[in-house]
Amino acid sequence: MSPLETTLIGLAVMLLLGMPIYMSLIVSAVIALVTGDILPLSVIHNSLFEGLNIFPLLAIPCFVVAGTLMEYGNITHQIIEVAKQLVGRVHGGLGITTILACTFFAAISGSGPGTVAAVGTLLVPAMIKSGYSKDYAAAAASSGGTIGILIPPSNPMIIYAILSNTSVTAMFTAGFIPGFIVAFSMIMTAYMLARKGSFKGEDEVAPFHLTTFLKSCGKSFFALATPVIILGSIYSGYATPVEASVVAIVWALFVGICINRTLKPVHIYRSLLEGAMTCGVILLIVGASSLFGKILTFEEAPQRLTSLVLGISENPQMVLLMIVVVLYMLGMFMETLSTIIILVPVLLPVILALGIDPIHFGIILVVTNNVAMLTPPLGVNLFVASRIAGISVERISVAVIPYLIALTLCILLFCFIPSLSTWLPEVLGYGQ
Fold first, then answer.
1. What residues have CB less than 8 Å from 24, skipping those under 6 apart?
2. Is residue 432 part of a domain?
3. Residue 26 counted as domain residue
4. Which domain holds residue 103?
5. DSSP string of 380-407?
6. For residue range 160-204, what is the model confidence (pLDDT) as tens digits?
7. What is the pLDDT of residues 64-100, one digit of tens each?
8. Counting CB atoms within 10 angstroms of each CB, which of 217, 260, 386, 410 has the fewest?
9. Does residue 420 contact residue 177 with C-beta atoms inside 8 Å?
């Protein structure tokens, strides 16, 4: 048995036994090194260190800390209040407000489950209190949270950019148009489901008046300025994504302490703890994947897969559709970042051989992982929404099916129209 076969079989066995992803990667790689004698054992600690010593990874814990600080600092609540004025009185007004708030908060947090928790905690109880079914409320929150990994800044985009040697700023730029298309499809789905279920808007919300709306925006100016500050610092060239993540923390502290005056020392501690825990999990997987990737590269796994795929079809769209199907299946059992970390080193040579823009592929990879957040048994957004709404994951899994259909249609659109992903980076000079 070749070292490559030993590695892949070992990985499959470890995952089936329920071993954590990082341990599965390390153990299967070490087994291949010991039994195959293909590389010196010193590659283990060298690869683990190389995988951790990547500067752009610093952006991830900082964005998580910033998002948590903004939740405690009342910024999320202010965003929701402004969104509610826009659509609060239409059918499914609170459901649409949830998705709009998720879209706005996504430009702060970069985390899908984090977006569900921040927005859902406020709006799911409000929807239930206003007569919406728990199924509808939980489905709207969990589906809206998927936008959190598509609208920049996005933690999965940062990981993909590092692994594919692509500009993080280019990936962030590419996420805007697909992100708003996905958000619009979610809003339309929420609206149609609300009409079918006769979930009317909130009567307590006053009819829309431009003057009142502008006054509300003025009161929430610092909250609404948050994504402009963060993303503007990146695209203006004043800050790298890592530096912008630190700017986000400073801005969150300023608004929470000096403007809204709701941020306490205990909130800062909890935010730092959340950032450390999130970063710890990611770094373990990234470091382990670096070792695993060394063996795959040495055994020419990417080249073998490229030859196999090209033997089936050389049509870029057909290959992308095959990859999407694989990602749909893997997403049911693997966490988003783990899927990206394991598959990108293997799939990227196939993509490049077919002439597919890596930015285009990165967007499809991220959007398809949106689906993974809504599919059991490992749909993380479902578990967060389940806890907030107080209903079973099984009930939410059925309720999100219309949103999954909408997401699938968006994925097909992105597969067949690459310019939706690549046009904006090319215009702004970030393209490959």
1. 11, 14, 15
2. no
3. yes
4. 3-427
5. HHHHHHHHHHT--HHHHHHHTHHHHHHH
6. 998 888 888 899 889 889 988 998 999 899 888 888 876 665 555
7. 788 788 878 888 778 777 777 766 566 667 788 888 8
8. 217
9. yes
